[in-house]
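Re-run with default settings, no changes from the original entry. Doing this only to confirm the output is reproducible before filing.
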Amino acid sequence: MTRKDNILFISLGRSPAVVPETLDALMDKGIYIKRTYLITTSDEIIVNKCIPLIQEDFKAHYQSKSMELSPWQACLSNDDIYTEGDNLELMIKVSGIFKKESGNNIYISMAGGRKTMSAAMALLAQIYGARAITHVLVPSEVEKKGNIFQLEKLINKERERILHPKEKRLIFFPVIGISWMLNDMIKALQGIEIASIRKEVREILIENGLLDNKYKPTPLGEQLFKLLNDIEKYPIPSSKLPDLKFKHDEFPHAPKGFQKFIMKLSNVPYIEEIRGLEYRNSSETRINEIYSDGSFKCQYSDGDKAYALKVITTAKSRGEVQFIKENLQSYFQN
């Protein structure tokens, strides 16, 4: 029997202490986390201060235990969650990692970040069957000093005391999973094969306002179906930071607006790498060809000259490649 890894998803705001506090509390319970994923935004304080501090502490305390940290795979491209689109992007990124880790023991900590992050993660925990939601309680004095601006003022010894407090209490909240009814849910919310769907599933959907009494999807049900449908088809997010997907010096004499276009592509979660090919005489910005391996060729033009690119994505299955074909076009519209 294959041994399952323990995986932690932890939401992060500007209080980086929640990460080592949670890892230490889990280890005190005999739960060693193999991979830790940070769920966060591109807020410059988080990116430039909080994450580097966590990486430094992780290297000092956990790397020797064969524990791994993934800071960028579930990092929202915006600096905060402003819209439903931002929330959907974050959910899709997180769900992609959930799918990848679905055979392992998943733990969730929602101590940091926005409340909307917590709500999104709680829903995904139910959909994909997380083992537990966790929360760490520390003394109020330790909690107050866990903010990045307070941590920066502390000498190393005092900072260690805040990041790794001796006094802490771990609370587990059980997760009632709905993965067993996910396929039935999707069918019901599509409005197809209603008669074949288990009665208890239909009743749950009606009670939660997702189906009406005639088993028709409500507006809320239609919204949930779109979310579930997008999540299921979305390729796994790249582990690369957007800035590392391309090199600025590869594109000398580029068309006007080219760097802005490249950054827009780099922030697409499933894009892994962008390679420059050649200059062309063309006035069009367009996708030229999408291949069965999920890569595609495209070009950007300022109306005068164009630069051609090859883009590598994380798409593997036929469904994921089809999703890319449907999803990509919006990135090539002005």
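Residues 179-233 form one domain. The mean pLDDT is 88.
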